[in-house]
Task: structure prediction
Amino acid sequence: MTQPANEDGETQPKPMNPRRLRQTLYWLALDWIHLHTTLPTPTHTGERTRSATTREYGHPAEWASDRAAEIVNLLTGWHDYLAEQRNETPPPTGSEERRLVAAWKYLEPRVEQLTQIVEAEALKELPDLHHKIRRALGVSTPKYTLPIPCPNSDCELRTLARIQGIGQDFISCDSCGYTFKEAHYPLLIRMTLDAYLNGAA
Result:
């Protein structure tokens, strides 16, 4: 598809789909929760580097800790950039939990503006990080458990899980089978992040 030309006759790059960016923010938040709570060991690093330069992780939790920090630093960077563009308060400092919650709550409702002022190629680092983490974890960890109760009033057990597979990526309850619609993800993830921030998880 040919992109519209600007006043100088140059073709404008196609912006990232806001829906895709919003979904990526969902998954990165859940990636952080999974890494932070279960400290998984990667099946492989997912990075194409020579063995001589590949980092060796001395502790099983080190890889997960590094990737969790990478997620927070990346989201905080975009939070800082957009806040500066909007002449608003910069992101907070402090714990990963606090910065992650702040970044997600700030960026998620503003993805449309972010895709309008930033080229898709620059924003691509967000989904790239999510996919790198998924590749590294491999098929041995297809399910992320979320530490909040099921919203089904007949259940309310802490058995919510994000299910990953080929062509599917959704959140459901292992106990009652309740499945979330994508429109409910913001509320679900906000509840989960708030639980961490308040020490309830």
User: Anything to note?
Assistant: The first strand starts at residue 143 and ends at 146. Residues 1-6, 46-55 have pLDDT under 50 and may be disordered.
